[in-house]
Amino acid sequence: MINTKNLIWTNLNQVNNIPDQVLTWLDDHQSLTVKLKQKFNRFSINVLSQAESLIHADETGLLDWQGQSIVREVELLGNGQVVVFARSIIPITNDTQNLLKIGSRPLGEVLFNDKNIKRSQLQITHTHDAWGRRSIFTIGSTQVLVSEFFIKNLYAL
């Protein structure tokens, strides 16, 4: 798991020191789930937590949301190895009721299969051996924040 508190995020188009093998993962607007299933023979998801929780100050500011939220943290595994850690902030609204019932299904399967859901521009961060990206998905009038951290195992393979 990655400590996601107090990270510095920058718009993707303002970062120029990203290694090419990392950039192909960060700067991609298709479903990460689909891309991982194409890369690995065995893809799985490990839900670490999905519960009502306090969210970080930068997440609150980005979402402009003061109500109750579910924080979902998962590991995405390729061939049994953790390759991505993801943290999603899902405000509890009528727009997100279906998201809150997905269990161990990848969130991306829902977000990318609905053409009415819009995605914001990507922001990037780097911490230890992981590069991260985050963006906001707008579902109806609700914004959902999805942060994904690409573990070195993913692009070192």
From TrEMBL:
Chief location category: cytoplasm
Keyword Nucleotide-binding attached: no
Domain of life: Bacteria
Pathway: Cofactor biosynthesis; ubiquinone biosynthesis
Biological process according to GO: pyruvate biosynthetic process; ubiquinone biosynthetic process
Entry keywords, A to Z: Cytoplasm, Lyase, Pyruvate, Ubiquinone biosynthesis
SUPFAM superfamilies registered for this protein in UniProt: Chorismate lyase-like
EC number: 4.1.3.40
Any one of the GO CC terms: cytosol
Listed HAMAP family: UbiC
The family this protein is said to belong to: Belongs to the UbiC family.
Protein function: Removes the pyruvyl group from chorismate, with concomitant aromatization of the ring, to provide 4-hydroxybenzoate (4HB) for the ubiquinone pathway.
The protein's name in its UniProt record: Probable chorismate pyruvate-lyase
Taxonomic source organism: Candidatus Ruthia endofausta
